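Troubleshooting log. The previous structure file for this entry was overwritten by mistake, so regenerating from the original sequence record. Sequence copied from the archived sheet and checked twice against the printout by T.R.
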Amino acid sequence: MSVKKFGAGQSVKRVEDIRLVMGQGQYSSDASDGSALKAAFVRSPYAHARFTIGDLAAAAAMPGVRAVYTARDFSDLGGLPCLAPVKNSDGSLTPLKPYPVMADGEVHHVGDIVAMVVAQTGTQARDAAEAVAVEWEALAPVVDTEQAVRSGEPVVFAAAPGNVAYDTHVGDKAKTDAIFARAPRKASVKVINPRVVANYMEPRAARADIDHATGEITLDLGSQGVHIMKMILCDMILKLPSDKLRVVTKDVGGGFGTKNMMYREYPLVVEATRRLGESVSWVGDRSEHFVGDAQGRDNVTTAEMAMDENGKFLGLRVDILGNLGAYLSMFAPYIPWLGASMATGTYNIGELHARVRGIYTHTVPVDAYRGAGRPEAAYVLERLVDVCAREMKLDPAEIRARNFIKPAQMPFHTLTDRDYDVGDFEGAMRACLKKADREGFAARAAASKANGKARGFGFASYIECTAWGDGEKGSVSLNKDGTLTVAIGTQSTGQGHETAYAQVVSEQFDLPLERIHVIQGDTKTIPTGNGTGGSRSIPVGAVMVGRASTKLAASLKELAADKLEAAVADLEIADGKIRIAGTDRAIDLAEIAALPQATGDKIKAVEEFVPPSATYPNGTHACEVEIDPETGHVALLRYTVVDDFGFTLNPLLLAGQVHGGIGQGAGQALTEKAAFDESGQLLTASFMDYAMPRADDFPDFEFETRNIPSNTNPMGLKGAGEAGSIGSTPAVMNAIADALWRSHKVAHIDMPATPYAVFAALRSQQA
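Regenerated output below.
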């Protein structure tokens, strides 16, 4: 057989990029261009206010306007659902705050939708939206997470006293408190994990069309999974029969978890199309993204470690306040809890108690953002471990080595009911520190000091859970022209699924990738799917594709055996043909497809893979920074990563995912923060004020894998899409903290470590 140069494990360039860089991508805003009508929304300028909307006649009479809607027009629609409520520690469930498709009489965050205008052009719709007369009565908001739980503060939802959406825990409080009572050494840290805005390249958009003959509506939108969108719209909000709605997602310009959510604009666009009988579209702008799309992170966490005299970790106490915003977005309550479930990280800790509270505030709702709870957990833990090292006067690598879970202890059941199957955490750390030339750091630090700069070295070891829960069902089929088609219910948002899945198929059929088509994102052609999130697409989807490819190959060999008059056992697949091994007698795939008996399920293989457990990627990130004390500017000089992803399907795609994750994690560490003032106004509501990282903020990333195949995944795969964002924030902040401590004995700084924040920390210490 020929060398399968396109198969799994090969560094194949992305096949979809040819289409995308030539301007042939099909994004949701492209679909919106041709709609008959355009929608615009009236959004609240207040974080908390009562309002009334007066006579709509003037706005409705403006040129091109077809309809003006308010909440009363949609009273028959269901609200946006929260799919992941969390019970309190006593087993009760605090009532969930309703999340209507449009605010009625009271708004709860800046950007809350209060009216919708549909017109013939986008300009006409926006002009009429500005003409909608709204009378506002401003009310006191509560914005700050810690302030929200204090007595006497404004209440966001009457059924959640003290603004607590839930109050739960992980671990054993009594045992952990007992450990702390007798522990000879302790260390603690309080960290703020600031709120961030996803800022994917492509803002959200949606277009709905109606087929008057059948009554079916097609909704084209950018999402991370069309099937969950359809289920929520049909079953929970619009109450539509399933056969009356088709949801389509084509190309997506970034998702990061945030495009997994149901947003109000989607049911409103569909409902407007139903009522007006014409296609309606909406294209959001960057300003709407800042105040209308789910945001990420926003935790205040206190963590304490109890240790023995040698720095052995005896117990961990954690208190998490997770700001959920004004409404409970789809998975919002689950995110802080998910972080708590990874609280012990890579360490063997004696006892644990983590209290987790989800908090309402008058701010934009918060939900899953790349890593979803795991970056928050890793940040807290790895900052605390460095503080423990300082308290014990131990090298940060040594205290980690003393407390890591050892390979011989695998499989390892954690105090949070996680089951780690494999891992060599110390091995990854040692390899990363060697690659980063930690031994040579002292000389580099001395050179920086001679130049008036402060140099720091920091690193962080992490582990995360990926690819758990629902499986994926799909198919691989042979087409008449000899090409193959993969149909799968995941959704690429830029990761390169068209390439990755095709590589798995090519492994079986020895075909170039351009002869393998991948279709996703259409509820009409793909019956089921669980979308993309939690780094699940490759560990789950690729296994399914591999199984279907193997099944199809066996079926095609049976068809070829009759034609070639040979036994199936004597056949092999090479160069896209099935041939008798050791001979030149062969039949290509197009000829097989043309055989009379090549019908139905003989040329289409349907398979499913349901993961038995999560996979646990892990690794170490190391960062070296230099700080200018005169300006507070932080320069990232070196960045090194050694990761364990089990098996690398495509090294180029993997490196891209890791690099992108580092960019987002380091961006949060250095520049990004969604800041609200006391009135609830978002002060960072544009790129003029919200500082995104740029390419020149980063050095070249040194990245390698030290893979140990997963025992819970048939291909050994572990999810990789979120890992870069998990290890990077603590690595960068530990490096900055190291530089500040070395130079000025500054003990703590929170994210983002902007020049102003660093400068202020230095000056406060000098004072």
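The two ends are 74 Å apart (CA to CA). Archived copy saved in two places this time.
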